[in-house]
Amino acid sequence: MNELFIWSTPILVIICAALMIKLLLIKKTAKEIIKGVREKISGDTNTLIDISSGDRDMRRLASDLNVQLSRLREEKICCQQGDIKLKEDVTNISHDLRTPLTAICGYLEMLKREEQTAQSRRYLEIVGERTAAMRQLTEELLKYSVAVSEEHIQHEIKDVVINNVLEECVSGFYAVLTENNIFPEIDICEEKIHRMLNSNALARVFSNIISNAVKYSDGDLKIVLAPDGAVSFSNAASGLDAITVGRLFDRFYTVETGERSTGLGLSIAKALTEQMGGTINASYQEQRVVIKITF
Questions:
Q1: What is the DSSP track for 7-24?
Q2: What is the pLDDT of residues 108-162, one digit of tens each?
Q3: Second label for 142, Cα 20 to 30 Å away, from 18, 56, 83, 295?
Q4: Do 225 and 231 form a contact (C-beta atoms < 8 A)?
């Protein structure tokens, strides 16, 4: 019995060592696969996952993942091409609608100068309002197609002082805000916040958010620029709720309180912010809409 134990002990040690080596190799291969998947998904590359292990099962796993990654890349390319085509179509449609809409507006102005009955005046006002809304939507569609163009944004990236851009936007909207009985509370840090951004795009982001506040605010607006560069806009909006606020960045989404809204203003703000490497989100806290931007 002792002799059997003496002979079996080295064998067990060898088996355990072999299993340990096998386990370490599997862990190494798993790490290679995880790293490979992350690189292929996050990067725009045609390369596939390559592992050092000769284990048949691990190589089969890597092969199956490569098949899925290839399909994912093909779908991504199709999606990008479709997105580009959609942007081109939107731009072309917007341009095509501009001319007839301008002509319609001109003829409406001419009709207003003619003698009219009370009923015909009312009809003309309705047509004028609908035409103005359609014209605004056309302009916003064109702006949106330009806004989501990465080349357009990246072409004019430079060192920008966020404080200055924010102050200019607030000054430009001050008359509109006061006309709507909104007297903004502004808290801009003294330290100059520098970021590599597109100044025109940043101004559009701030302007669209302030314009949104004009539509939905109950009568207040608080704007804060923190020393870490985060910019927050908040206003009371009892007519909204958490679900509505969660959809504010959706294209063409409007709420009933937003008269003559195209539903593209905040979508454009989101697209521009993300094109410049920033993040933007909206929340609803104690009947207040809070929109926060971080670069």
A1: HHHHHHHHHHHHHHHHHH
A2: 888 888 887 888 888 888 888 888 777 777 776 676 666 655 555 666 788 999 9
A3: 295
A4: yes
Q: What is the pLDDT of residues 151-179, one digit of tens each?
A: 556 667 889 999 999 999 999 988 888 88
Sign, CA dihedral 239-241-243-249, equals positive
Rounded distance, CA 35 to CA 95, Å?
46
* C-alpha distances in Å from residue 225, one per residue of 15, 252, 274, 294: 64, 29, 19, 10
- Residues 20 and 100: their CA atoms lie apart, in Å, by 77
Q: What pTM was estimated for this model as a whole?
A: 0.56
Question: Cα separations (Å) of 56 from 69, 89, 139, 151, 204?
Answer: 20, 49, 59, 45, 56
Quote the DSSP letter at residue 236: E
**How far is CA 197 from each of CA 56, 103, 205, rounded to the nearest angstrom?**
50, 38, 12
CB atoms closer than 10 angstroms to residue 224: 16
